[in-house]
Write a structure and sequence with these properties.
The chain is an alpha/beta fold. It has 4 helices and 4 strands; from the N terminus they run ββαβαβαα. A 4-stranded mixed beta sheet has the order 1-2-3-4, with helices on both faces.
Length: about 140
Amino acid sequence: NFGINSKTQNAFDTVLVTPNGHYVVIECTLATLRAESKLSKFAARTVDAREALAAAELTDIQVMPIMITALTREEVQVDIDQALNSNILVMTKEDIEAAHAKLSEYPNADAFYDELMNILQSSRNPLMFGNIPPFNLQL
C-alpha cells in the first residue's frame, strides 16, 4: 500500500524479491512514461536503492527497475529510448499479456528475472538500441 500516506508517496509502486535474492522495483503508470516526471523520479529512486544496498555491503544483489504501462509499445515508443538510457526496462500492454501467459503456465521467478535481465542487457547494444522487439519469453 505504498502511496497512501505522505511518507510512502515517493516509494516504488511494487518491490519483488526473486528466490535468488535479487530485487525488481516497479513503477506503474496508465499514462506515458514521462508524465509527471515519473521516469526521472523512478530512475533516481533506483539509484538510491542500489546505493543503500551497497552501503549495507550487499553488492551481490541486483536491482532491476521495470516501468509498466497499460499503453501499447507503439504509444510509448518515444519514451522507451529514454528509459533504456537510464537502464530501466519497459513493459507495455503486450509485454504484460505475454508475461502473464508464460508465468501462469510455468511459474519460475528466477528464470523470468534472468530473461528480463538479458533483454535489458541486450538493449545496451547500439545495433538494437531503440528497436527492442516485444518480449519473447522462453521460460
